Amino acid sequence: MEKQICQSCGITLTEENKGLNADKSQNEEYCHYCFNYGEFTEPKMTLDLQIKKLSEMAISNFNLSEDEALTMAKKTLPKLKRWQH
Questions:
Q1: 3-class SS of residue 1
Q2: Is the separation of the CB atoms in 36 and 24 below 8 Å?
Q3: Where are the domains of the chain?
């Protein structure tokens, strides 16, 4: 079974970190960091800001270099549902 990832930030979705819809049911596409109670937690977030945020998290959490983290974020995030236009 393929793992589900948040369609905004790319983290692995688990039963514990899924966002909530307006009716408080679990959202199957977004984590609670990005989406809760039927709305994005940061509605003014842009793809560029999300790339910066994800790369900073990857540097601190996974010991990646800045170049590695930026490359990963730029490769992953534009493919996610929230950033499709």
A1: coil
A2: no
A3: 18-83
